[in-house]
Amino acid sequence: MKKTIILLISVLLGIAVCFSSCESVLPAEEENSSSETEQNRTENSDYSAENNLPEYTPGSVKLVSQNSDNYPFERKYRMAYYRIWGEFSELLSEEEYSDYQQWTQNVSEENGYGEFQNEMLLVSFVKRYGISREEFDAAAQKYAENSKRDNWDMLSEEFEVPNGDIIYTFDNEIINNYYRYE
Fold first, then answer.
1. How many angstroms from the chain centroid is the CA of residue 97?
2. What are the residues facing 24 on neighbouring strands?
3. Residue 129 covered by a domain
4. pLDDT digits (tens, 9 = 90+) for 60-83
5. Rounded to an integer, what distance in angstroms lies between the CA atom of residue 45 and that of residue 177?
């Protein structure tokens, strides 16, 4: 049952996952945060600023409490990191979609259903299926329109629209920093 829930979350084969009465909870900052982590964030911020990339500002996305998010592990990243929305899988041909179903199952099992994931699932998807930036932007726009139509809270982590500018850097350090859970 747990594997099924996680697989559905990571695959999102057109099924929207809705959570009711989620709290916006930010994890407590560690008092002894390593200077290495701060240095990496500073370097990423400098890179983002130099290249006009958007930066994630903690508190700008309403985070779902990790106690009520249905993930069996403590997430390092926001939910968008672990998902592929139906609007993106709709870009695939029938043959690709068949491969996609098997691939998502394999990837989910290999990375502990997200626990050991080191690359954003949507980035892996874009690379595997050669999704162009134009196709990606159209799918993201469709997802945003569907979310607005359904009155989903677009500032909530569950419904965050994936950021093409960040994803198409294909730089896991930048992507991981942007989608961090804090």
1. 20
2. 64
3. yes
4. 899 999 888 889 999 999 999 999
5. 9
Please write the tens of the pLDDT for every residue from 45-56.
Answer: 444 556 689 888
H-state helical runs in the chain:
2-11, 35-50, 86-89, 94-110, 121-129, 133-149, 164-167, 172-178
Tell me how far apart the alpha carbons of residues 37 and 41 are, in angstroms, rounded to a whole number.
6
pLDDT digits (tens, 9 = 90+) for 5-17: 333 333 333 323 3
Q: Which domain holds residue 70?
A: 2-14+36-178
Instruction: Give the DSSP H/E element, type plus range, for residue 129.
Output: helix 121-129
Question: CB–CB of 17/9 below 8 Å?
Answer: yes
| Separation CA 131–CA 69 (nearest Å) | 29
Report yes or no: 178 and 56 within 8 Å, Cβ to Cβ: yes
Residue 25 half-sphere exposure, CB side, CA atoms within 13 Å? 11
Residue 31 lies in a domain: no
Residue listed under structure tokens 């954003």: 120
Considering its fold, how many domains does the chain have in total?
Answer: 1
- Nearest Cα to 83, choosing from 59, 58, 67, 64? 64
CB under 8 Å to 153, separation ≥6 — which residues?
A: 62, 159
Q: Which two tokens stand for residue 37?
A: 């982590």
Distance set, CA 168 to CA 142, 159, 175 (Å): 18, 20, 9
